[in-house]
Amino acid sequence: MLNTQSNTQQGPRPFNSGESLAGKEGHLATLVDGGSIAELLLPLTVTELALFIIDEGGALDKDSAVIPLVAGDERRIKANGTGSAGAILVLEDPATPANKGKVRTIPATEGFYFSPGIAQEDFVDEQLVNVRVLPRLVHVGTAFTVAAPAATAATSTTPFGYTEAQANAILTNLIELRAWAVANGFKATNA
Questions:
Q1: Most CB within 10 Å of its CB: which of 112, 119, 131, 170?
Q2: CA nearest 43: which of 96, 111, 118?
């Protein structure tokens, strides 16, 4: 092992609970700055990078054992609702406290969502669904049909055969994605 990696740890590890995580096994949690120590919390938004699965939930200010989400691993995460194998899973809306840290199938509602991965089996409500881990942020954009471009003739003035409304919707989504990325610390360039 390199000396630069001498104090790192792989696999399950304990962190202080910033709230009671007792009974939340299988839920996703996020690591936050608790002042003098790192703390675990259930996600407060659908975009939080909830990169840990609670293995043994602890009381407030006690340690909880968590397992990090590592791309390519197989893990079980608590589901809210039903879904099918192959479904992209995202954080459930934490507005309902009982749903904090659970996952659901990707909604039709436009927006950004944290996705821990895809379901590897059909699942029912409250099941610990088998997930192929691939943590990422996903974006659900404005819906429009792209099946057949409106104008494909050589004299068409619309970009790539899309209607003007479709082209504007694509442009709007790209602008929103760039603004979100910049607001979340990604550096923007006009290269």
A1: 131
A2: 96
Per-residue DSSP letter, 127 = -
pLDDT, tens digit (0-9, with 9 covering 90-100), for 54-86:
999 999 999 999 999 999 999 999 999 999 999
What's the pLDDT tens digit per position in 126-165?
Answer: 999 999 999 999 988 865 444 444 444 444 455 556 677 7
Phi, psi of 111 (to 5 degrees): 150, -175
CA dihedral 66, 70, 75, 78 (to 10 degrees): 60
In contact, 24 and 42? CB cutoff 8 Å? yes
Ramachandran quadrant class, 97 (left: phi over 0; alpha: psi -120 to 50; beta: rest): alpha
Closest CA to 138 of 47, 8, 26, 24: 47
Please name which of 106, 111, 119 lies closest in space to residue 78, comparing C-alpha atoms.
Answer: 119
Q: Judge whether 52 and 32 are in contact, CB under 8 Å.
A: no
pLDDT at 189: 59
Please report which residue ranges of 5-77 form alpha helices under DSSP H.
none
* Alpha-carbon radius of gyration of the chain: 20
